[in-house]
Specification:
With 407 residues, the protein is mainly alpha-helical. Among the domains are: 131 residues, Type II secretion system (T2SS), domain F (Receptor-associated Protein, Up-down Bundle), CATH 1.20.81.30; 100 residues, Type II secretion system (T2SS), domain F (Receptor-associated Protein), CATH 1.20.81.30. It has 16 helices and three strands. The longest helix is centred in the middle third of the chain and has 57 residues. The radius of gyration is 29 Å and the shape is flat.
């Protein structure tokens, strides 16, 4: 059934906008009149590729759907399905509750697809920009097992953990990023506007200047004239790195550097293992078979090296090995994680043990990030001090030499 975006007036003359599904624009207008609205404008929003492209542009530039909104929708849909309400009716309730026009439109498209006989999984795959692979795969598992409401509840809990961890990362990085931005702006102002005015006096005196002063003058003149070249170089480097990472070899190199880089590598490894354990535990708790769960989880660890280890483990498990034994030979799975997985397999509580692993690594990652940010601040202050000190010394040296000549 097509979905229409409407603008209408209520009985008091107040303008209302929203989305309604109907067989045609005429039926949509009749439906609105039946609800006590006077339709002003009714326009179809789905069903055409051009309009879908427009929706994506509108999604990216205007009313961006936040992860928190998807999380709330997931929990609400779980509650409605758990209460015995049919899927289409539940989606209709979510459309009425959604306040974001873009999200309301997307839910309406999902409802239309389900109305046409498609599964919820298939309907969600039409919006890959909003629903991740693990989200879609967990919904597929829930539909296959007949426990979609339980799976959605687990998915909401998993998303809450993930969003909370990301929120703590962002909060920890706000101050260092802000300080770096301010420092760069101050240095740009000094080198571009203040330093040339001061050093011009030294140049007009036509005397031999100290090496630091000559370097400062040369850098200042070059930066003042060609600052755009630095900006262009940064843009080109960023674009080149992004393009290289999209290629298989570039992605492999990047993922290896993420794990091997001192200090930061350990944090990335623990974060990937936390995602692995949390997702695998959630899938197993919902009755998804182990091999299927591992194949799903490999897509969310965000690292090809660890994903390859999971692929090898899947093959070894098929041959009869335990999961702990399969991961034991990999350097990317620490002994502690392997031991806890082994205990979980032996006790029959692998799901619970995986959740404990995820909790442990998430706490370690948070602690490490806080430690790194506390180290970044003094390093940034030291770097700024060295640069400003170099500028001050470069300016003062010619003044000291002139004083000596006068005396």
């Amino acid at each position: 059934m097509p979905v229409y975006e409407y603008s209408a007036l209520d009985k008091s003359g107040k303008k209302e906008t929203g989305i309604i599904d109907a067989d045609s624009s005429v039926a949509a207008r009749q439906k609105l009149r039946g609800k006590g609205f006077y339709p002003v404008k009714v326009k179809e929003t789905t069903g055409k590729a051009l309009e879908e492209g427009r929706d994506l542009l509108f999604f990216s530039l205007s009313n961006r759907v936040k992860p928190e909104e998807v999380l709330v929708m997931t929990r609400q849909l779980s509650t409605l399905l758990g209460a015995g309400i049919p899927l289409v009716s539940s989606l209709d309730s979510l459309i009425q509750q959604a306040t974001n026009p873009t999200f309301k439109r997307i839910i309406s498209q999902i409802k239309e697809s389900v109305n046409e006989g498609n599964s919820l999984t298939h309907s969600l795959t039409q919006h890959p920009h909003l629903f991740s692979n693990i989200y879609i795969n967990m919904v597929r598992a829930g539909e296959a097992s007949g426990s979609l409401d339980v799976v959605l509840e687990r998915l909401a809990e998993f998303s809450e953990h993930h969003q909370a961890l990301k929120g703590r990362f962002r909060a920890a990085l706000i101050y260092p990023v802000f300080m770096a931005a301010i420092g760069i702006l101050v240095l740009f102002f000094l080198v571009t506007f203040i330093v040339p005015g001061i050093t011009e006096v030294f140049v007009e005196m036509q005397q031999v200047l100290p090496l630091p002063t000559m370097l400062l003058i040369g850098f200042s003149n070059f930066f003042k004239s060609y600052w755009w070249l630095f900006l262009l170089l940064i843009i080109l480097l960023t674009w080149s790195c992004r393009a290289a990472i999209k290629r298989p070899k570039g992605r492999m190199f990047w993922d290896e550097m993420k794990l091997r880089t001192p200090i930061v590598g350990k944090v990335n490894q623990k974060a990937a293992l936390a995602r692995f354990s949390r997702a695998l535990g959630s899938l197993l708790q919902n009755g998804v078979p182990l091999l299927t769960s591992l194949q799903i989880v490999r897509n969310i660890v965000d690292n090809i090296l660890i994903a390859n280890v999971i692929d090898d483990a899947v093959e070894e498990i098929r041959e009869g090995k335990s999961m702990a034994a399969s991961f034991q030979q990999s350097k990317w799975f620490p002994p502690m994680a392997v031991q806890m997985i082994s205990v979980g397999e032996q006790s029959g509580e692998l799901e619970v043990m995986l959740q404990k692993i995820a909790d442990s690594y998430e706490k370690e990652v948070e602690s490490n990030v806080m430690g790194l940010t506390s180290m970044i601040e003094p390093v940034m202050i030291l770097a700024m001090g060295l640069v400003v000190g170099f500028i001050v010394i470069s300016i003062l040296l010619p003044i000291f030499e002139m004083n000596q000549m006068i005396s």
